[in-house]
Amino acid sequence: MTRKAVYVGLPYLLGLLVCDRLSVPWYGCLGVFPLLLLLGWAFRFRAKQLLVCGISFLLACCLYSGYMARVRDPLLEYAGQTVTLTGRVEDVTVRDNGHASYLIRTSIGGHTTRVTYYGDDLVCRYGDSIRMTAVLAPYADTYLFPAVSYYQGEGSFLRISEASGVEILPEDGWFLMRSIRAYSGKICSRIRMELPEQEAGLLCAMLLGDKSGLDDETKTSLYRLGIGHVTAVSGLHLTLLCTLVSWLLGRLRLGKRAAFFVQTAVMTGFVLCTGISHSACRAAVMLLVVYSGDVFHRQSDPLNALCIAALALTGTRPYLIGSASFLLSAAGVFAVAVAAPWLTAHFPADTLPRRMLKALAGSALIPVLLMPVCACYFQEVSLLSPLSNFLVLPLCLAAMLCGLGVFLTGGWQVLAFPLLGLAGLFCRIVLRIGSWCASLQIGVVPLGGAYILPLCMLCTLAALCVFGFRREQRRVWASILLSVLLFWDASLCMPLLERDTLKIAMLGKGNDCTLVITCNGQTDVLDLSGGGAGAAYVRRYLQAYGISRVETLVLGEQQYRGMAAYDTAFAYVKVHRLLVPEQTYCLSGSRICDTEPEETYVERTELCRPRYTIRFLGAGTVEILYAGRRVLCASGTEELTESDVRIQYGARLPETVTAGYLLTTAPCGIPDERVYAGRNNLCISITSRGGIRIRDLMKGG
Q1: Going by DSSP bridges, is the β-strand pair 661-664/675-676 parallel, antiparallel, or unpaired?
Q2: pLDDT confidence of residue 77
Q3: In this structure, are residues 303 and 3 in contact, taking their beta carbons and an 8 Å threshold?
Q4: What is d(CA 456, CA 487) in angstroms, rounded to the nearest whole number?
Q5: How confident is the model over 87-96, as a mean pLDDT?
Q6: Most CB within 10 Å of its CB: which of 105, 134, 492, 568?
Q7: In what order do the strands lie in the sheet with 675-676?
């Protein structure tokens, strides 16, 4: 049986994924039987192969459920309890407001785990001990960030919600990681001294994974350009480094074993420099498998190497299967090293134009193959990556090579000055191209629709069935192209079918409330709680639904903070009108969100649209009329009149619900199926016939 790691690894990963996505892991075990039948029928497996796949699948289900039952669940029982905690600081991120976030390795209930703490900047270093009396709490997902899956992927199940008696115990001994991080910090400081802020931030992110110097506008432009992955230190960086080392070793004519040990040392040092990140570990294991082929007289196989790396990483840490970075990294390697070469194997490559066409076709496949994973975690995906890989990525690689020269020479002035000047030029070109593409919304596909994920999964299943029954490149190409056309048509048709539907998104955190109202291609944003607290939520919502123009942005309270927040958040959103309260001081000719603020009496403002009307009734109360329905949003404690939908935020709730739907941002004990209590980030959809649907944006349904 050839490719043994594949027969073990793929069912193993599938078992972990099934257990992670289902609330009851044993459902995955019950699903092994139809899975085996499907594998045997489609791929013509023998009995021995089916047995290996089945055992691997069951082993993954048992390992995942056993780990969660023995480690995660006992740790979560400490949620809400006060404990005396002593641990070691593994990471410190200093914020601009004098605070810092800490990642602490400690022991709770006999289990070694990591916890996060956000508090004052205590000026500590990696390896220092920290002691405190802490109140533990579980992570909670927000509309902006899936904290549960992210931190579970890092091996952390609890956070510190409150702390007292925090004390840092300095450790004066020598720590390898402390020395490496100090050296990396020195190189970053050197880069920031020589280059402008955003150019230095991009180079530090590409070279060392330090994204602290990049603002949200730059990050958005890079991801819309399709090269956002260069800011995450991963296999791309390690492959570049190993390629350079291989070239040098070839010049020195070292033996195979000596070269392998040198490559191993280089990979180990790189993994340590990245803080032992999962993506770097995966890339290191894969490359070690590839380079060991010559030493042990074995032919390396990308899919085998990927499965071995996945088994090595998840064998003792099955929770990694829920990490977005791990899944994207593994899916990216599969697309680049396995799927794309197989699909383009029949392409002729006898001339230079044909070789370029073959490479372009392979690059175009990558974003399509990654679409199902991206639909689970992101609001939009870029289709510019095929062109970016040819035109822009070489500039990034050149900048990284220059930065690598600075890193390896310790920032020596004689070499650092010309190398950083050249790297800054490359980064400047990349930033300008990214900003131009992001402002034009070129090649951006929104992923916020409820139909996106099911459609992606359906298309993926169809392509896999075609591959299983007919292993021909042309047939698989046809299935992929049909899937792309289906997805593209659905993306164009669904907004047209919903043109007559009024959508009111209730966004924010806690008692904050910002409304985003869309209908017939028009969008209005009403910041009711003030202060711009909902700006980040609105930006995420607009990205998810591909909205790049806002007709009216209304700021009712704390307008100065709101203007600053929305001006930053709406870097690539065009605002037609910005309404602020009377007597709001603005410099003559000043522009916020690329428009001049208009002073108005907000409490008596009325926005009349062709199909709906928005009325401000004062004291943070808004009335929206559409299709015979009335939506009333209020923040006061006064008695509300009966309405079809009532949104109440930041106030005490009524004891009974007499009519319609009630959406609140505070917990409510009213037993009624039409009451959505203590929940924010909901979307109310009202059809042209008056039908109502309430959707939870965090759950996609």
Answers
A1: parallel
A2: 92
A3: yes
A4: 8
A5: 82
A6: 134
A7: 606-608, 613-618, 621-626, 629-634, 645-648, 661-664, 675-676
Distance separating alpha carbons of residues 486 and 686, to the nearest angstrom: 27
Exposure of 65 in the CB half-sphere (CA atoms within 13 A): 17
The beta-strand segments (E) located in 42-128 are 82-94, 99-108, 111-120
How high is the pLDDT of residue 1? 46
Nearest to residue 308, comparing CAs of 363, 375, 298, 149? 298
Enumerate the β-bridge partners of residue 555. 527
Interatomic CA distance for residues 436 and 643, integer angstroms: 46
Residue 640 DSSP label: P
pLDDT at 25 over 80: no
Q: What is the pLDDT of residues 553-593, one digit of tens each?
A: 998 777 888 888 898 899 889 999 998 888 777 777 788 88
Which of 204, 272, 261, 210 is CA-nearest to residue 238?
Answer: 272
Q: List 118's β-bridge partners, or say none.
A: 101
Determine the average pLDDT of the residues in 521-529.
Answer: 90
Q: In the Cβ-directed half-sphere of 605, how many Cα atoms lie within 13 Å?
A: 23
CA 200 to chain CA centroid, Å, is: 23
State the chain's mean pLDDT as an integer.
Answer: 81
CA distance to 352, 359, 387, 390, 478, per residue, from 356 (Å): 6, 5, 12, 10, 21
Give the helix/strand (H/E) hosting 614: strand 613-618
Q: Maximum CA pair distance of the chain?
A: 85
| pTM for the whole structure | 0.87
pLDDT surpassing 90 at residue 539:
yes
Structure token pair of residue 534: 């909902």
For residue 433, list its beta bridge partners: none
Count the Cβ atoms, other than its own, within 10 Å of residue 348: 9
Please tell me the distance from the alpha carbon of residue 469 to that of residue 370, in angstroms, as a whole number.
Answer: 22
pLDDT of residue 136 exceeding 70, the answer is: yes
CA–CA separation, 318 vs 332, rounded Å? Answer: 20
CB of 33 closer than 8 Å to CB of 82: no
- 487, 654 Cβ separation under 8 angstroms: no
Nearest to 224 by CA among 572, 594, 538: 572
Contacts 24+ apart (CB under 8 A), 230-233: 230/205, 230/206, 230/393, 230/396, 230/400, 231/202, 231/205, 231/206, 232/279, 232/325, 233/208, 233/209, 233/274, 233/277, 233/279, 233/280
Percent of the chain with pLDDT over 70: 90
Q: Which residue has the tokens 């799927």?
A: 339
Model pLDDT for residues 320-341, shown as the tens digit of each residue: 888 877 887 788 778 877 888 8
